């Protein structure tokens, strides 16, 4: 065996192995177990030769710790073989058998640790100099910590995961580097640990990885194994562990396959229980997972069976702002076109809860889901009437001019749903809804343009609103530009409809003609866009073909 002179551990280990192997043929009791030990000792000797061939084996801290454990176990084995070779000093068969099994177990752990040490490549790592890049330093530290998580005692692994958590919390780049070094599979295996502390810290580390977009796929690749661990934690873990498990599940639950697995394994029931009685942080995270799950139609039945709507509404009265936002988002995904669920929400006080959230929301960005829920509820006419009487028009108007695109789009969609009758259209027109919707026609997003055109096409069915719209000349021009077939993914029937509502005005017809409406409409007629032919005929009868030719 190659023995570096500067490290006595290698020499001592080799001598101890030789001593035990010499004793074994002379031992008469438990021959099968001693034969098994001989095989393990031979494997360990070969492994030590491999370790000794690394240039840093005599200085690497992990290598030294490993060698210290080897010497400790081999010393115990040598003492035991000496006793068994001399029955006069034996401690009795039961005690001896127990001691042999203990040594065999320790040898198994050492062989496993040695294999991890050799494969980890940390013995290739030299001392990181001050001139080395930070990335290289983090990479080497990650390899070191990941190896330490797999070898040694529970206490040493807890120390290693504490250091890993500190590294991961410093920077998202550190998370990416650690994941590239194989941290995630190792952390997942730690979720099987008998140590509650190690298990909780492992799920905390996994939750950090789950928040970094570039490495989420590494976690998702762990599939059903990780999913089952996280779901078990939801049932029996501490409040801290449940919160971290929910954070990790947020990334996993965006997959349809994982969503099905969560639903079939009782995950929705566990998540709803956390929403009812968990810590504030775990409630917000659980609601976020439920929000993802509710977007899959086949999972919705699970929510109904577990009275999910009632639980989510309860969270609106007691949860943190983030928990409330996620609960509303979940309700949005649940209700869809289901009028029965919408009526249930109203019956259980949902409108009042929505008002309270709306009036206390910390930012307009958080308001987006509330506006979306308003729009969904308003699509049911009896509810729309109640919403108007509860003062939601005054709440909705300023959102049309806010700086958050998603909130503006949701608000315009809500306007369309709320304008279900002449009385509602009249009230919105007199309240000032027309001008901000005209502004949205010039938005950069196609979704914003579409939502605004759709809302205006409904509002302009009321004659008084048409007069307001006609005063805004830029509204005509902006609507005509939306007819352009080169603007993709925009439903042309809405700008066609709103222009048709004002085409009777000669002033509006001239503005349409000057903006090039005829050429656009001719193309839309060929595309069979609803209402385009009728609008083109209306313009033709005005006998302004000369203007059309110039456009």
Key structural traits:
mainly alpha, about 550 residues, about 0% strand, 34 helices, Single alpha-helices involved in coiled-coils or other helix-helix interfaces, repeat, disordered C terminus, ARM-like
Summarize the entry for a quick read.
It contains 34 helices and no strands. By secondary structure, the protein is an all-alpha fold. Keywords: Repeat.
Instruction: Give the number of helices.
Output: 34
What's the overall geometry? Answer: elongated
CATH architecture descriptor text of the domain at 6-87 and 94-118:
Up-down Bundle
Helix content: over 70%
Mean pLDDT: 88
Our measurement of the CA-to-CA distance between the termini, rounded to an integer number of angstroms, reads 92 Å
Q: Any low-confidence stretches, pLDDT <50, length ≥5?
A: 1-6, 127-131, 544-551
Can you tell me the CATH topology of the domain at 6-87 and 94-118?
Single alpha-helices involved in coiled-coils or other helix-helix interfaces
| Sheet with most strands | none
Number of strands: 0
At the first level of CATH, the class of the domain at 6-87 and 94-118 is Mainly Alpha
User: What does the radius of gyration come to?
Assistant: 35 Å
User: Into which percentage range does the β-strand content fall?
Assistant: under 5%
Task: Name the structural class.
Answer: mainly alpha
């Amino acid at each position: 065996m190659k023995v570096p002179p500067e490290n006595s551990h290698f020499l001592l280990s080799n001598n101890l192995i030789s001593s035990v192997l010499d004793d074994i043929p002379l031992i008469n009791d438990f021959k099968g177990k001693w034969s098994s030990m001989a095989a393990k000792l031979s494997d360990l000797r070969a492994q030590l030769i491999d370790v000794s061939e690394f240039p840093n084996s005599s200085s690497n801290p992990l290598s030294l710790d490993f060698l210290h454990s080897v010497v400790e176990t081999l010393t115990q084995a040598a003492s035991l073989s000496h006793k068994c070779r001399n029955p006069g000093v034996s401690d009795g068969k039961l005690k001896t058998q127990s001691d042999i099994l203990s040594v065999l177990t320790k040898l198994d752990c050492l062989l496993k640790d040695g294999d991890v040490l050799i494969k980890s490549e940390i013995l290739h790592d030299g001392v990181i100099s001050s001139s080395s890049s930070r990335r290289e330093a983090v990479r080497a530290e990650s390899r070191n910590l990941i190896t330490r998580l797999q070898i040694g005692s529970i206490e040493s692994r807890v120390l290693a995961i504490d250091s890993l958590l500190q590294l991961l919390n410093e920077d998202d780049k550190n998370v990416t580097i650690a994941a590239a070094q194989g941290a995630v599979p190792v952390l997942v295996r730690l979720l099987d640990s008998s140590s509650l502390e190690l298990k909780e810290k492992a799920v905390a580390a996994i939750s950090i990885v789950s928040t970094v977009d570039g490495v989420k796929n590494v976690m998702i690749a762990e599939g059903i194994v990780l999913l089952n661990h996280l779901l078990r934690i939801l049932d029996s873990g501490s409040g801290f562990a449940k919160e971290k498990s929910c954070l990790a599940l947020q990334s996993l639950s965006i997959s349809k396959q994982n969503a099905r697995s969560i639903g079939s394994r009782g995950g929705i029931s566990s998540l709803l229980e956390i929403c009812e009685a968990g810590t504030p942080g775990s409630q917000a995270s659980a609601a976020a997972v439920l929000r993802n799950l509710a977007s899959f139609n086949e999972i919705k039945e699970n929510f109904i069976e577990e009275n999910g709507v009632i639980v989510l509404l309860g969270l609106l009265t007691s949860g943190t702002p983030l928990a409330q936002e996620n609960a509303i988002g979940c309700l949005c995904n649940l209700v869809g076109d289901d009028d029965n669920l919408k009526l249930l929400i109203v019956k259980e006080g949902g409108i009042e809860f929505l008002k309270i959230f709306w009036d206390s929301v910390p930012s307009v960005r958080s308001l987006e889901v509330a506006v979306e829920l308003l729009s969904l509820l308003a699509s049911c006419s009896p509810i729309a009437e109640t919403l108007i009487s509860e003062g939601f028009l005054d709440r909705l108007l300023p959102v049309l001019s806010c700086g958050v695109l998603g909130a503006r789009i949701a608000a315009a969609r809500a306007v369309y749903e709320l304008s279900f009758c002449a009385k509602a259209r009249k009230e919105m027109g007199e309240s000032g809804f027309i001008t901000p919707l005209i502004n949205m026609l010039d938005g950069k997003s196609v979704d914003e343009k579409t939502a605004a055109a759709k809302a205006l096409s409904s509002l302009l069915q009321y004659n008084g609103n048409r007069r307001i719209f006609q005063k805004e000349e830029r509204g005509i021009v902006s609507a005509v530009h939306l007819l352009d077939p080169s603007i993709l993914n925009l439903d042309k029937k809405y700008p066609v409809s709103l222009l048709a509502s004002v085409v009777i005005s000669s002033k509006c017809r001239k503005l349409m003609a000057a903006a090039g409406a005829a050429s656009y409409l001719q193309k839309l007629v060929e595309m069979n866009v609803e209402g385009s032919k009728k609008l083109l005929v209306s313009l033709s009868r005005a006998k302004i073909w000369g203007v059309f030719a110039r456009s």
